[in-house]
């Protein structure tokens, strides 16, 4: 009899120790930094769980890691890291997701010069008017890869590699306020506008690049409405070799159709007049030149 009584008391104690309300939440630690949140079925149960959110975060990280792998390294000593030729040997396109990206204009000002040929030089950026000392901000989250006070052409320049795969360039600054390897958030103050380098007046020379390929920022950014045009950007091998390559054969065909001649090595105004069939006097007048003017290879001559 005593034995039966002892067994009953023991069972009651075990039942009380392990009882739990149906509304309680159970946490199973997945690692030292995250917890998976599971909930028993109730009428108020949410449609999604922390586990699903973590999976989405991991997918985003995988995409970011892929871009990092394609760059290969993180060099603080070179201005541009040209990796696209290697990458497009094994693939035809690269998809850059911007859906979850916070975006901020580097500076809200009037665009003075667009992507394309300018005078006799290729212009790979967008020039935004400003006053010396105006605040320049990072467009996306990222890490400062390069910052230098004396770079030919650029003057004082900052280059940030973003987690989405882009690199952005901020040139002609009067002051750099960050350092290489600093982690930056979109909208963070990184420098002050100026007129350093090859510049005719205070402005921000802003570039977007991917694997070294310069991209027309106006294909990505709606400057008037201060937002991104799309949630994704696809960079193809054709874009890298033709669309955004201002020295490609396709570009020469485009400018030819617009009655523009690109000066080649050994060209003179007289030779150009003979090649195009345009009288020398017309070429001089249209291009505001003199017979003694020196023209350099790459310069546009309007026909």
Descriptive notes:
The chain is of the alpha+beta class. The chain folds into two domains: 50-247, Glucose Permease (Domain IIA); 259-302, LysM domain (Membrane-bound Lytic Murein Transglycosylase D, Chain A), CATH 3.10.350.10. The protein has seven helices and 20 strands. It has helices spanning 2-17, 50-71, 84-87, 237-243, 249-257, 269-276, 280-286, and strands at 25-29, 35-39, 93-97, 111-113, 116-118, 121-123, 126-129, 135-137, 142-151, 155-162, 167-176, 183-184, 189-193, 203-210, 213-215, 221-222, 227-228, 232-236, 260-262, 300-302. 22% of the residues are buried.
Q: Helix and strand layout, with pairings?
A:
Layout (H helix, E strand, L loop, with lengths): L1 H16 L7 E5 L5 E5 L10 H22 L12 H4 L5 E5 L13 E3 L2 E3 L2 E3 L2 E4 L5 E3 L4 E10 L3 E8 L4 E10 L6 E2 L4 E5 L9 E8 L2 E3 L5 E2 L4 E2 L3 E5 H7 L5 H9 L2 E3 L6 H8 L3 H7 L13 E3 L1
Antiparallel strand pairs: 1-2, 3-18, 4-7, 5-6, 7-14, 8-13, 9-10, 9-12, 10-11, 11-13, 11-14, 14-15, 16-17, 19-20
What would you say about this model in short?
Helices cover 24% and strands 30% of the residues. The protein contains seven helices and 20 strands.
